[in-house]
Amino acid sequence: MTARNEFDLIETRPDERFDEARLQAHLRGRLPGTEAAMRVMQFAGGKANLTYLLQFGEGYEYVLRRPPLGPYAPSAHDMGREYRVLSVLHRAFKLAPRAYYFCSDEGVLGAPFFLMERRYGLVARGEMPERYRDDANAPRKMSRALVDALADFHAVDYAALGLSELGRPAGFIARQVDGWKRRWAAAKLGEDARVETIYGWLSENQPESAYSSLVHNDYKLDNTMYSLDDPARMVAVFDWDMCTLGDPLSDVGMLLTYWTQPDDPTLVKAIGTMPEDGAGFFSRAEILARYGEKSGRDLANMRFYHVLGVFRLLVILQQIYVRYVRGFTQDERFGSLGGAVDGLAQWAIEILEGGGD
User: Fold this and answer.
1) What is the pLDDT of residues 90-147, one digit of tens each?
2) Which helix H or strand E contains 317, and what residues bound it?
3) Are residues 39 and 105 in the same domain?
4) Distance between CA 104 and CA 116 in Å, rounded?
5) Which of 81, 235, 237, 265 is the most exposed place for a label (fewest CB within 10 A)?
């Protein structure tokens, strides 16, 4: 495997390869440039859906997205949904890459997939991008851009894009709580009384949803891309396979869940993917203040949405971890996720008891 470069590209992992000749034969002539020879690389980031770069000849590039290997919840890795959203969302939200082609024939890759445009920029994960390290204000610029983009996305007129049937805003929160509990039941390797406590608290403390909008459902720093030369400018938002219509504050709760700040306990920092433990970035309180200012929404019930976000993340990581335990993927990054799930369960308990947020 080659070393990662600035754009996080690697040679395809051995267990995540596919029949390239079959794919090229299928794509030939369907999109501009696909008559030329095809080269495949893999984007190394991400822990669920698999993402590849297809290069045709010297001038054409497409990004291919497919679900993870092994059994998965189709509603959590819905390539058809992601294609449907990205085929139109770019018209109103410029940070959404445009999707070009969807294939539901599992005989090509073994799963549905779609192709979208490639965006160029930097993704921040465990370290600050090298290009930004001389700018002491880069973390705050990135924070502001991230929150502002979320508020802008929630303001999109989804009906004008033909996305009114994407979901049902009424009852969204109740379905989220029960749906993630069902996913936990399908992925758990044993009982955990804390998860039952979290589920019970969420069931009993559901707020009335005052707002409805498009919801990304996995909005976080490392699902976004920034300009190569300006940390104040975002160029893309990725991972739209769970996009739906619902309560926009659930996206804010997920952002708080993925966020790390310097005073967080060790278990929270271990779960996060923020550069340098979030040093220099907005605090969670500043995220809420900025989002409230930009959106005009009442954020009084954010403790509920934060707990819901932590609950969702612990289930997502458990779904990935159980695929690793059962041998559906050999990606060694996933071997430690059992500890992350344990840490998230503890964090959710602390937040609902009045601390930890």
Assistant:
1) 999 999 999 999 999 999 999 999 999 999 999 998 889 999 999 999 999 999 999 9
2) helix 302-325
3) yes
4) 15
5) 265
Give yes or no for a contact between 221 and 142, defined as CB atoms under 8 angstroms apart: yes
Residues 135 and 110 in one domain: no
C-beta separation of 40 from 69 below 8 A: no
Q: How far apart are CA 2 and CA 5, in angstroms?
A: 9
Q: Which of 313, 339, 75, 48 is nearest to 198 (CA)?
A: 313
Per-residue tokens: 107: 């005989």
Positive or negative: CA dihedral 101, 105, 109, 113 = positive
Instruction: Give the Å distances, CA to CA, from 129 to 4, 44, 57, 273.
Output: 13, 15, 29, 13
Please spell the DSSP secondary structure of 142-210, one letter per residue: HHHHHHHHHHHHHT--TGGGT-TTS---TTHHHHHHHHHHHHHHHH-SS--HHHHHHHHHHHHSPPP--
Give residue for tokens 């500043």: 286
**Residue 332 CB-density burial (10 A; 0-12 exposed, 13-18 middle, 19+ buried):** exposed
Strands 99-103 and 244-246: what pairing? unpaired
Count of domains observed in the chain:
2
Residue 135 corresponds to which amino acid? D
Q: Is 246 helix (H, G, I), strand (E, B) or coil?
A: strand
159-217 tens-digit pLDDT? 999 999 999 999 999 999 999 999 999 999 989 999 999 999 999 999 988 899 999 99
Instruction: Give the angle subtended at the CA of 198 by the CAs of 195 and 200, to the nearest 5°.
Output: 110
Domain stops at, among 60, 82, 116: 116
What element of type H or E holds 226? strand 224-226
Query: Same domain, yes or no, for 104 and 192?
Result: no
What are the residues whose beta carbons fall under 8 Å from the beta carbon of 271, sequence distance 6 or more?
313, 340, 343, 344, 347
For residue 246, what is the domain's CATH number?
Answer: 3.90.1200.10
Report which secondary-structure segment, H or E, holds 60: strand 60-66
